[in-house]
Design a protein that fits this description.
This protein is mainly α. The chain has one domain. It has nine helices and no strands.
Length: 251
């Protein structure tokens, strides 16, 4: 199991290096990159909005309930703001996009692999990494941070609505503690995580698709594996960032 994990990790790393090399060479069609940015970013706005707004609402509700036991309900905004920006919104958005976009990448490229369209690209002297992987990787790496920043705003609106509108927290105190204890670094941490999550989703999804075997059943396995591996890797990398960033940023 460990050897299989290390082997796949090495293969994904090699795919990432080949993608970077093609990017530096100026390969990849701008039109395809923009199309992927629309598919990954714009069309993911509804699902990211629903996920983050309810995450903000649930977090605000439970934070207020817990804090009122100690007479500290007015501090709800500070805790909710930091938790959403640093952890919940980047991780939830990453997992949701892994399920929506990573699965689509694996299924699309897997179908092309089992129907020998990838082999056809080789016969035409076209590099599948530059033609297929590069646009998806660039689009995912660029758009996921944008979705996270958007999700931050939506999540905070949901948290504010619950804390102030439902639970009766004073709006001035909520905003005061939110902006007093929440720093720009908190948003920066979430942004950095989102960049790495976008890269992970694209590389794993494309790798699984390019290595699909066994017809329709193999495509299904590749799709499932892409979602599971991407989600687990996001959680692992989130923990690693949590240990690294305190030494590099004012965490």
């Amino acid at each position: 199991m460990i050897s299989s994990f290390l082997r796949e990790l090495g293969a994904v790393t090699i795919l990432g290096w080949e993608t970077l090399r093609n990017l530096l060479k100026g390969e990849g069609e701008l039109g395809e990159i923009l199309r992927q940015m629309e598919l990954i970013g714009v069309k993911s706005v509804p699902v990211v909005s629903l996920t983050t707004v309810f995450a903000g609402m649930v977090l605000a509700l439970n934070t207020y309930i817990g804090f009122t036991r100690f007479g500290a309900g007015q501090y709800t905004g500070s805790v909710v703001g930091v938790a959403l920006a640093k952890e919940l919104v980047p991780v939830l958005a990453g997992i949701v996009i892994a399920g929506r976009v990573g699965a689509a990448m694996a299924a699309e490229l897997g179908t092309m692999k089992v129907t020998e369209q990838i082999d056809a690209l080789y016969t035409l002297n076209a590099d599948p990494v530059a033609f297929l992987v590069l646009p998806r990787t660039v689009a995912s790496t660029v758009m996921l941070p944008v979705l996270v920043l958007f999700g931050d705003g939506v999540a905070h609106m949901g948290a504010y609505a619950v804390a102030v509108g439902l639970m009766g927290v004073n709006s001035r105190l909520y905003n005061y503690y939110l902006f007093t204890y929440m720093e720009p670094w908190d948003i920066a941490v979430g942004f950095i995580k989102a960049v790495s999550f976008g890269l992970i989703i694209a590389l794993i999804g494309c790798y699984k698709g390019l290595n699909a075997e066994g017809g329709a059943e193999g495509v299904g396995r590749a799709t499932t594996s892409a979602v599971v591996h991407s989600s687990i890797t996001i959680l692992i990398v989130d923990f690693i960032w949590g240990k690294i960033l305190p030494w590099t940023l004012r965490y």
